[in-house]
């Protein structure tokens, strides 16, 4: 290994506890995740045992209250944990982000009784969650969802299909947005649905270009019956809950994107300093040096952007615009950086013998999930110039 090999990211962390936490995450990542990441992704294997370990280590509920088994860490710290995990295997980093998203509704809008009953198992009891908003005909236009929940005495009966559900078919619980009233955003409510509910059926996982180890599937609700005690928040509040969750979730995607980009940069630097052509390392050629410099700059800018948004959130200040900016910039940067990493490795970058091609395939989905980057631009513009069509 050359002297100029990449070193771990030098992080600015607020406490000694946070520094110890990052050390723990790096140890788990290198010992339990990295050795099998490429092989398991190629085989399409989901590492459930890794998530069990993360739960036992207190890493599946980091931003939530310690009263219910959470880590009570600020988002500034939680997101850097996600980045570390995603840099080793995006299936794991994104999986933790999705689980955190799925837990958000109950942790933030649930009643005290609901939180006492469900949160400890969700945050530290080995359970894994999924978030059900998108549908086959309503992706970006989420307010037009058609899955219905009809009141029947003290129960609700849910019927419909959700699409593009991360952890679909393997999750232990699903946070589901369903229509309980009028058309549009005011007629949607949120429910916590256990995976073993009668009538809940997951389709076969989608065949994807990347993140093959993370199952993404349609989930069908065929008259699924849940008690009213599993409705989260007020009737008609579900869409507001969903949007609030996505503001935080977009920061998770941004952090994962920077993790993938950092991994790609590290691979490119290592290769460029080891590979020799014309009697010297290819890293000595100005064209490649400038590419590496641009890649590193995009990563640092993205990391600063998502951390600035996280600090606003931690301070209780509005952060939706900054979350959209972070998601937009970080995922676009990840796509550019991973593409450049493949270019730097040349023919080797196009083979599965090196991880650069996997990073490139994985980066693409981050521009799509939890609001496409076109939607992020709409959100940002709305904050700047007001709603469209005024």
Q: What distinguishing features does this structure have?
A:
four-stranded mixed sheet, alpha+beta, four-stranded antiparallel sheet, 51% helix, 14% strand, 10 strands, 10 helices, 390 residues, globular
Radius of gyration: 21 Å
Which regions have little confidence, pLDDT < 50, spanning 5+ residues? Answer: none
Sheet of most strands: 4 strands, mixed
How many helices? The count is 10
Q: Strand fraction band?
A: 5-15%
Strand order of the largest sheet: 1-4-5-8
Structural class call reads: alpha+beta
Give the fraction of residues assigned to helices.
40-55%
N-to-C CA distance: 60 Å
Mean pLDDT equals 96
Shape: globular
How many beta-strand runs? 10
How do the helices and strands follow one another from N- to C-terminus? HHHHHEEEEEEEEHEEHHHH
Description:
The chain has helices spanning 16-43, 48-56, 75-88, 90-109, 112-124, 238-274, 286-314, 320-345, 356-366, 373-385, and strands spanning 129-132, 148-152, 155-166, 173-179, 188-194, 200-202, 216-227, 231-232, 276-277, 280-281. The chain has 390 residues and is α+β, with helices and mostly antiparallel strands. The strands form 3 sheets. Strands 1-4-5-8 form a 4-stranded mixed β-sheet. A hairpin with an 8-residue loop joins strand 4 and strand 5. Helix 3 (75-88) packs across helix 6 (238-274) and helix 7 (286-314) packs antiparallel against helix 8 (320-345). The mean pLDDT is 96.
Would you kindly provide a brief summary of this structure?
It is built from ten helices and ten strands.
């Amino acid at each position: 290994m050359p002297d100029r090999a990449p070193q771990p990211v030098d992080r600015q962390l607020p406490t000694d506890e946070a520094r110890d936490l990052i050390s723990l995450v790096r140890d788990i990542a290198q010992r339990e995740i990295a050795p099998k990441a490429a092989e398991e992704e190629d085989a399409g294997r989901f590492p459930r045992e890794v998530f069990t370990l993360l739960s036992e280590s207190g890493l599946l509920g980091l931003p939530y209250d310690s009263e219910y088994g959470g880590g009570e860490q600020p988002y500034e710290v939680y997101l850097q944990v996600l980045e570390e995990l995603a840099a080793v295997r995006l299936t794991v980093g994104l999986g933790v982000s999705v689980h955190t998203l799925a837990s958000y509704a109950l942790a933030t809008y649930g009643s005290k009784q609901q939180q006492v009953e469900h949160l400890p198992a969700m945050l530290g009891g080995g359970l894994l969650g999924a978030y059900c908003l998108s549908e086959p005909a309503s992706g970006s236009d989420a307010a037009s969802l058609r899955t219905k929940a009809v009141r029947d005495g003290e129960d609700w009966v849910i019927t419909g299909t959700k699409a593009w559900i991360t952890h679909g078919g393997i999750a232990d619980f699903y946070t589901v947005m369903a229509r309980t009233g009028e058309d549009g955003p005011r007629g949607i409510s949120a429910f916590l649905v256990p995976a073993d509910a009668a009538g809940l059926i997951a389709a076969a996982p989608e065949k994807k270009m990347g993140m093959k180890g993370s199952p993404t599937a349609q989930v069908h609700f065929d008259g699924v019956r849940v008690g009213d005690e599993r409705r989260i928040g007020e009737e008609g509040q579900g869409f507001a809950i969903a949007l609030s969750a996505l503001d935080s979730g977009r920061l998770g995607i941004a952090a994962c994107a920077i993790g993938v980009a950092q991994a790609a940069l590290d691979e490119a630097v290592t290769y460029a300093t080891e590979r020799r052509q014309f009697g010297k390392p290819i890293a000595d050629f100005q064209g490649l040096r400038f590419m590496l410099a641009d890649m590193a700059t995009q990563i640092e800018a993205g990391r600063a952007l998502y951390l600035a948004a996280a600090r606003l959130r931690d301070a209780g200040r509005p952060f939706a615009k900054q979350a959209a900016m972070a998601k937009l910039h970080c995922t676009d940067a990840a796509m550019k950086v991973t593409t450049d990493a493949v270019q730097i490795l040349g023919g080797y970058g196009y083979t599965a013998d090196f991880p650069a091609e996997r990073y490139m395939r994985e980066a693409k989905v981050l521009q799509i999930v939890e609001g496409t980057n076109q939607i992020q631009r709409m959100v940002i513009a709305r904050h700047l110039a007001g709603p469209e069509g005024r």
